[in-house]
């Protein structure tokens, strides 16, 4: 009886561990939480402790439904630390209802229609001779460039440079790349 019980427990643990490994292999950890490819951009971002400012801004701009849509979208997602680099009071001012249009313009400047993983971004950079232009959902251009092997930077309309710290966080409706600077349109 003990051998049968022991075998059953061992088998159960083995299948549980294998199942957990399969689930975890498809997810990426961002902000202390697993980002699941079966969830959409908003569902995953809500769980990231590093993106609470971005989530609050998306809600204030009324973009939740859009980013939960079918997409696909590539989102360059600034961390809380990226927002903290802005001048004091900027975020608090942007989330006010009277500044919704400005906030929406800034946030949609972080979104590109289509799903561009790192390999696709690298191909665009190579084809462009070291840099490439992406058209954002806001309608304004954003530039990508290589900064060494496996390192892509973004340049915004004001000349600010953002580094991608986490690539290819796949979502049901696109992909997220985590960045260290808030991108600013014209």
Automatic annotation (TrEMBL):
Signal peptide feature range: 1-21
Any Pfam family hit: Fasciclin
GO cellular component: extracellular space
Family matches, as InterPro entries: Adhesion/Biosynth-related, FAS1_dom_sf, FAS1_domain
Keywords, alphabetical: Signal
Gene3D superfamilies given in the database record: FAS1 domain (2.30.180.10)
Domain FAS1 per the UniProt entry, residue ranges: 38-183
Classification via PANTHER family: FI19380P1 (PTHR10900:SF77), PERIOSTIN-RELATED (PTHR10900)
Annotated protein name in UniProt: Beta IG-H3 family protein
Originating organism: Buttiauxella noackiae ATCC 51607
């Amino acid at each position: 009886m003990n051998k049968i019980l022991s075998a059953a427990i061992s088998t159960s643990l083995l299948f549980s561990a294998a199942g957990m490994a399969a689930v975890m292999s498809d997810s990426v950890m961002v902000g202390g939480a697993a980002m699941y490819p079966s969830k959409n951009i908003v569902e995953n971002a809500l769980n990231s402790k590093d993106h609470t400012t971005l989530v609050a801004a998306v809600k204030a701009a009324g973009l939740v439904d859009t980013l939960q849509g079918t997409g696909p979208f590539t989102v360059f997602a600034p961390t809380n630390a990226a927002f903290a680099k802005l001048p004091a009071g900027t975020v608090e001012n942007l989330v006010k209802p009277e500044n919704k249009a400005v906030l929406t313009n800034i946030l949609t400047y972080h979104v590109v229609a289509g799903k561009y993983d790192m390999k696709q971004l690298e191909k665009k950079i190579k084809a462009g001779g070291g840099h490439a232009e992406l058209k954002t959902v806001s309608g304004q251009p954003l530039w990508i460039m290589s900064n060494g092997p496996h390192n892509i930077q973004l340049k915004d309309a004001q000349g600010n440079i953002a580094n991608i710290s986490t690539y290819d966080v796949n979502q049901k409706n696109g992909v997220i790349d985590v960045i260290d600077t808030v991108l600013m349109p014209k």
